Amino acid sequence: MTLNNETIVHPRLHHLGLTTGSTNPMVEWYRTVLGMSVVHQTSSAAGKHSDEAIKTTWVSNDEANHRLAFVELPGLQSDPIRSRRSRVQHFAFEYRALEELLGTYQRLRGLGILPVLCADQGAQTAFYYKDPDQNIVEVDVDNFGNPWTSSEYIRTSPEFASNPLGVFVDPDKMIAAHDRGATAWEIHVLARSGEFVPDKPYSLQVFM
Q1: What are the C-alpha distances in Å from 93 to residues 20, 29, 41, 83, 137?
Q2: 78 located within any domain
Q3: For the chain, how many structural domains are there in total?
Q4: What b/e string do you get for 88-121 counting C-beta neighbours within 10 Å, with b at 16 or more?
């Protein structure tokens, strides 16, 4: 087989590696929130390449061999001026249906895990959480149910261009509409009209 060395190949994003000062709380949080389970864990990730002990844990919630890798660096501390440094701002996981997103919100709310910001952004409805290390983790659903349609919306919609973050929503108000029989699309339309605006505004500082 001849190698393709002329055109750009489009690989899929496979996993993220996160450093942490304490692996166990991270593993437990991602297990609880996203259904991650440990695929492998070692205290010597460098293997034969180094005598340094580097505890690393690989976790996944689907068929991939791992979706996240936690590299533990003892003594690692949160950065008080995090907002002034280059970093991964957030990463996201997508549900197949709005019912999954709202059901997960209900389940996590019962465990005391609440999102820091929720919005209908036109192409998607997204809830943002913070993990134990204060990484922002987005869970979302495609409002159109079609990646081509949502991509075209982001590319061409004046509405998106003028307000990419979208309309803030209260998940409990969305659930109430769902329980009254509203469809996912009807909930999206109501959200965009301001029907589910939270009583207490979210702070954009959570993204800083």
Answers
A1: 20, 15, 23, 23, 8
A2: no
A3: 2
A4: eeeeebebeebeebbebbeebeeeebebebbbbb
Which residues have CB under 8 Å from 55's CB, separation 6+?
Answer: 23, 41, 42, 43, 45, 71, 72
Residue 104 CA to residue 52 CA, distance in Å, equals 40
What mean pLDDT do residues 168-175 have?
99
Question: What distance in Å separates the CA atoms of residue 111 and residue 115, rounded to the nearest whole number?
Answer: 12
Residues 145 and 203 in one domain: yes
- Nearest alpha carbon to residue 134 among 25, 35, 16, 58: 25
User: In this predicted model, what pLDDT tens digit does every residue of 25-57 receive, in sequence order?
Assistant: 999 999 999 999 999 998 876 666 666 678 899
Which tens digit of pLDDT belongs to each residue from 130-144?
999 999 999 999 999
Token pair recorded at residue 153: 């919306």
> Is residue 7 in a domain?
no
Mean pLDDT (the chain) is 93
Q: Does any domain span residue 111? A: yes
Which structural domain, as residue segments, surrounds residue 56? 16-72
> What are the tokens at 61?
């919630």
Per-residue pLDDT reduced to its tens digit, 65-88: 999 999 998 888 877 777 777 788
Element (H, E) at 27: helix 23-34
